[in-house]
Each structure stands twice: as structure tokens, then as C-alpha cells.
FMN-binding negative transcriptional regulator (Salinicola endophyticus), 216 residues
Amino acid sequence: MHRPLPFRLDDSTALADAMACAPFATLITRDADGWLADHLPMLRIAEREGAPLGVLRGHVARTNPLVAGATTRPALAIFHGPQAYITPSWYPAKREHGRVVPTWNYQVVHAHGTLRLIDDASWLRDTVAALTDHFERDRTHPWSIEDAPAGFIDGLCRGIVGVELVIERLDGQRKASQHKPDAERAAIQRGLIDECGFDEASAHCLSGWRETDERH
């Protein structure tokens, strides 16, 4: 991925947060017939022995062509964060001199590593439980796989195969108009909220600006 210096996202905490906030990944692999692209939620497990950057875990249907290939292979998981078209109509410079153009702001993380397929009932049940607990964690009454009838989850797990990507390199990029003047970044923040319906956190991600910044 081309990563111009102003937009590079290299901080380990920021990279982990970006993946956690956008866990529905695009998993890219290759087999004898060409490229495969799968879309699935992947949960990052923090640093462990042999994987200082952590691992990503998920599962795919047993009928997925990914399962028919080699049990280990190079892979790339892409995590797409907030993204938006940025109209030059928001910029104060449009009114001042008109030398403005549109752009697209976004946040993305590429996780490179080695993928392995896991066909183990205990591992699959633990991973399904971990994924469910992660996505249910903010609910007042979270659902658990233990809420399902006995044997029901085990039956469903027989139709899936686990995937685990040992992360070997993380490349992140956050294009948020960092090179623009404060007035233009504040205008992007307001435009994303007022016209596009973004929440403040996502608008801040794409502008690097908060309304409170104007008071400092």
C-alpha cells in the first residue's frame, strides 16, 4: 500500500483500535486457480508466543473454496474504517480563491501474515464464543452461545472451518486532510456531521478535528 508520510498510521495502539472498530475484514489469499477474496469478521488476539503482533481469528463455511486449498498460505486481511467523499464546497478557500478540489478521506489497516485453517471442534466453539461475546459486549442483555439449545451450536460448528492469521506486518493509513489548514479540517468535521450524518468520532477520524479544538 502506498503510504505518504503525513498519512501513515504506525502507532501499535492506533492500529489495534482501528482493527477493533472495523472488524469486518476482507481476507485475500491465492490458490492454484487465482485470487480469493472472503469477507468475514476477524477478532484480533493480542501478543502471544511466536506472534508479537497478535493473531486474527474467524471462520468460513466448510464449502468455501478457501478450505480446499493449502492449510497454510500467505494472506492479507484488510480492515476498512470510516471513509467519505470530501467536497471542496466545505472549504473556506472555495469562497476566498476557488483553488480547491474534491478528495476522499479514509482509514484502513492491512494485516500481512500466514493463514492456517483449523478444523478442531473445541477451537471452533471457543472462537465462535469469543466473537459473539465481543460483539454482544455493549448490549444490556448480551446473548451467549450458552443461550442456545444443547448441541445446536456444536451442530452448526460442523459446517464451518476456522481461520487464523498470524500477523507478521501491519500497515496502516489514515488520510484525514492532515496537510490542510485548521479552518478546512474544522469545515470537514462540520460537513461530515451536518450533511453526511457521521457521528463525532467517525468525523474526527476523517478530519482530525473536534469542535472543542476551536476553544483552545
